[in-house]
Amino acid sequence: MDLAKDKTHRQCLNQFCTNALLHLYITSTEKTQPISPIERNRLLKRFIKPKLENHQFRLIKRELKTILQSKRSIEHLLLKAIEVTSMQDKMLAEIVKWTNFISELSSTLALDIEVIKEEHPLKRNAINVLDNDVFNSFDVDTGTYKQLLTIKICYTCQKLTDKIIALVQQDKLYQVASLQTFEGEGFFVTTAMLNFKTQCVQCPDFAANSRIKSE
After folding, report:
1. Pfam families, alphabetically (predicted)?
2. Among residues 26, 111, 186, 210, which is most buried (max CB within 10 A)?
3. Which of 171, 195, 196 shows the shortest CA–CA distance to 90?
4. Ramachandran sector of residue 110 (left: φ over 0; alpha: ψ -120 to 50; beta: rest)
């Protein structure tokens, strides 16, 4: 995942939605009578449509098309988009912390990082990360992630055991929910289950509720 590009994409969407809503609210104040939900949709469509052809907004063209084609309140969708992207930026920061932690662990222990399926054998002399944790725990589409993450460090030198335990326990980003070492035939496995100290972020449905009649 290109974290920098993903963050730029979310910032662009957040900024655009904010500007669109400001346009709506400023336009609304010019009206002498309250405007209907359908009229609010028309005003927002008039603002958004020209932007689809603007190269500046190429990163969010798909989202803008989805918003325009929806039969829901565009105003509501823009508000939800702002809420989601703001929370996902926070979640993205947690992903960076997690990957930095694994990278530093790999560098300090001189072990490779391997992403494996839970049912597959562990890679020796490697920090084994379960693919479920990598691909399912951090879901940038829904904005949710699990708090409990597992790493299995498989190594052949017993002297590493104490060092591994100390490194895992000293990290301030996570609480160690479980830490166990298993001795196999010619190798050792230290399994750490790590719990985020920060609160898990649950983003709302991007296009939930607030239906209005189509024009």
Report:
1. DUF2913
2. 111
3. 196
4. left
The residue type found at 99 is T
Low-confidence residues of the chain: pLDDT under 70:
1-7, 30, 88-95, 132-148, 173, 196-215
Contacts of 160 (CB under 8 A, 6+ apart): 109, 188
Tens-place pLDDT, residues 138-148: 554 544 555 56
Residue corresponding to tokens 């939605």:
17
Q: Distance (Å, rounded) from C-alpha 26 to C-alpha 23?
A: 5
Which domains does the chain carry?
Answer: 3-88 (no CATH), 96-196 (3.30.2000)
CB 118 within 8 A of CB 149: no
Query: What is the amino acid identity at position 190?
Result: T
Angle, in degrees to the nearest 10, between helices 160-170 and 74-109: 150
